[in-house]
Known about the structure:
The complex is a heterodimer.
Chain A: E1 4-13, E2 16-26, E3 31-35, H1 42-50, E4 57-62, E5 65-66, E6 77-80, H2 92-102, H3 107-120, H4 136-148, E7 154-158, H5 166-183, E8 186-191, H6 194-200, E9 203-208, E10 211-216, H7 218-223, H8 228-233, E11 240-250, E12 253-258, E13 263-266, E14 268-269, E15 278-283, E16 289-292, E17 298-305, E18 309-316, E19 321-327, E20 337-341, E21 348-350, E22 358-359
Parallel strand pairs in A: 3-8, 3-9, 6-7, 7-8
Antiparallel strand pairs in A: 1-2, 1-4, 4-5, 9-10, 11-12, 11-15, 12-13, 14-22, 15-21, 16-20, 17-18, 17-20, 18-19
Helix pairs in contact in A: 2-3, 2-4
Chain B: H1 2-35, H2 39-43, H3 56-64, H4 67-98, H5 104-113, H6 123-132, H7 139-163, H8 167-175, H9 180-209, H10 212-217, H11 225-230, H12 240-260, H13 262-269
Helix pairs in contact in B: 1-12, 3-12, 4-7, 4-9, 7-9, 8-9, 9-13
Amino acid sequence: xxxxxxxxxxxxxxxxxxxxxxxxxxxxxxxxxxxxxxxxxxxxxxxxxxxxxxxxxxxxxxxxxxxxxxxxxxxxxxxxxxxxxxxxxxxxxxxxxxxxxxxxxxxxxxxxxxxxxxxxxxxxxxxxxxxxxxxxxxxxxxxxxxxxxxxxxxxxxxxxxxxxxxxxxxxxxxxxxxxxxxxxxxxxxxxxxxxxxxxxxxxxxxxxxxxxxxxxxxxxxxxxxxxxxxxxxxxxxxxxxxxxxxxxxxxxxxxxxxxxxxxxxxxxxxxxxxxxxxxxxxxxxxxxxxxxxxxxxxxxxxxxxxxxxxxxxxxxxxxxxxxxxxxxxxxxxxxxxxxxxxxxxxxxxxxxxxxxxxxxxxxxxxx
Amino acid sequence: xxxxxxxxxxxxxxxxxxxxxxxxxxxxxxxxxxxxxxxxxxxxxxxxxxxxxxxxxxxxxxxxxxxxxxxxxxxxxxxxxxxxxxxxxxxxxxxxxxxxxxxxxxxxxxxxxxxxxxxxxxxxxxxxxxxxxxxxxxxxxxxxxxxxxxxxxxxxxxxxxxxxxxxxxxxxxxxxxxxxxxxxxxxxxxxxxxxxxxxxxxxxxxxxxxxxxxxxxxxxxxxxxxxxxxxxxxxxxxxxxxxxxxxxxxxxxxxxxxxxxxxxxxxxxxxxxxx
Lengths: 367, 275
């Protein structure tokens, strides 16, 4: 098993810097997810760890050994590609055998290992099928099998589920989580899907434009986003934002005035900013409360019924749309006037530079 | 109505296709036919379509020149040039397809541009080079020249075929511990085999039919089939019967090879359905 350490890793293509000095440590047996919008550098970072891309500067350590210049096959890693990347001219058995053969594992041992992995992944009936004869899900299993059979120190997954349909993706997600518990191997998983990130990760690394925006457990990112980007990126439907004026604050909280004049006392301590500064308030749709209208502060514009929950899009007096998540039984209808209540303990405040105000008390699940 | 129109179009297109094919094939047909005529029949006007076939031209051709000697030279030169070109082109195309640099595109275009030069433009320097390296009238010499003239096209073709192979498959090989060499031989080559086969076939055909360098760089020892044909067109005048017989003998092997490997050729040219 293995630990990984990234020390100010940088990657430059021609003149453009893609990865801008990323430092990170990954513990033994940890399931780490790199998440971010496309083009954020998450796949490049994974490929740098794999050895498929050169490291322009910085150090990559696996189990304390610097491996910057070690060939991919000698780093003790195995990778599952988005496109599966199975060898089309070899059957399932040979696909799994290839790496073992190159490593000089004796034939009997190879066969035992492959049979064992095939049993784990329910691939036994397909051992002599070519990849072209398999379905997407089966190919994905073969790709995972090919990685497992080599018994690597670290598993690397590059958006492994994005080629599958929604139902299969959900199923494979659960299978992968179960597999991780069984194998107990250090895993790095790249995805742009926040559901995958939230459900599978021990630790999420949010990336944007080659920079780490935040590292933390899924609930830490959800309850205590470090900045506007993470707040927007984590959570579905995304957090609502609106502007407000900072009044004053201290260790016990900060007072802000919303545009309609409402005063809120949010339990977060302010950074060094002056009263009167324009800041951003954020609140998740599941935390906004709907109340019967006492005035014309808002009107229901769209209702999305998802069964268990309902998403209500409310147009406020100033024209801004706020999304509210309520239960599936609401009888609200379009054009109904409503007013919104923002529970201060669920509000997030962001300074003009985008950084979040520090919470006075950490959420118990995100300590 | 629509179906009828479609059918008549189909018939018209078929007729047109056959027409063009026959028109293209006619010279070859006429050559084969003339080979079985006597010299008098061969030049008679109007040309005779019905005649008593004779093997006299063939007999004379075999008497006057050693067909097998020329064929042997052609095979040695074509195969040698093709194998040599593939050995050089496969690593070159591999690096250009999977590890392109800023200059890859330019290099490819420059290589192709050398094919735009008329060969006669470099006749004197190549002749002098061949002479000073004692490669005149040797199979080795001609094979090297053929290999080098075809190299740009072969690299281009292989480059195109290799680009069809998804890079992650090769990367998976590298992750599995394959060296660059193993990655090329155990992963890339089996996948690109149809493309490599059709490239090799094209190279064989080009070398087999090459006449300019054969006539200028060989005389007797290393003369290939193209020189064999040419030897029936000179000093005492043209003898169409023998010339045709010789030409038929010269093109027959490559024609048969092309026929047999038709499927492979088409598969190679439509390569790309690996995913």
